[in-house]
Each structure stands twice: as C-alpha cells, then as structure tokens.
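Worked example 2:
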Amino acid sequence: EYCSYNYRSFDIANHFVEWMYDYTEPNHPFYREDCSNYPTEEQRQLFIRAYLDERGSRENPNEVMKEVEVFALASHFFWAMWGLVNAETSKIPFGYWEYACSRLTCYQQLKHKFGGSGQLKRKMNDYTI
C-alpha cells in the first residue's frame, strides 16, 4: 500500500481513479483497466458528501468535486511516473511500462477535457489539505 501526506482532493481523486483498475489479473501485464468502472457523478457526490459530513464541514460538495476532478490529473501523472521508474528498477513481475503508458493516456485525455474549462488555472493554495 502506498500513502503520503497530500491534498485531500488528491487522495479522493486517487480513490476514484483506482476503481478503474483490477490488479488481480494473473497474466501480463497483471492488471486490467476498465474506464467504465469510474464512479458515476452520483457515486462521487455521495462519497464527497459523506466525507464532508464526517468532518462536520459546511463546504460546498460541488466545489470539492471540482478539486477532485483536477487532482485526478495529478493521480494519473504520479502513477505514470511510478510506472516508468519501476519499469527500470523493480524485480516484481508487473507491466510497469504498460501501466505507465495507460496512466499517461488517461492523464492526456483528462487534461484535454479540462483544456478550455478554466479549472486548471486555479492556484495550489486554493485547495485544502
């Protein structure tokens, strides 16, 4: 398991993105990606509302949703870099190169989606840790 101190929206975005990956595949590349498993907007809203309610927060769930959507980019980029590094260094049998390519493709598709939305123009200190 991997964990780190990070922005809450990175953690939530990473949680949602991981819904698309199944790491029980017995054959190379030892994972399956299924983008249709990404949680629906309703599922994401439900999760975010539960998160905010648990914290006693009165924040607007729609604003947190926007943060999470942007941080999904960071999740894909992080895991793409992880795959590239491990493709050269790890002895564990896993399709690191394929995984890195998959995550970079998702990153590029998502970045293209946000291209004209203005969501990427926010500053990092606009987000809550």
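The chain has one domain: 8-126. The chain has a mean pLDDT of 91.
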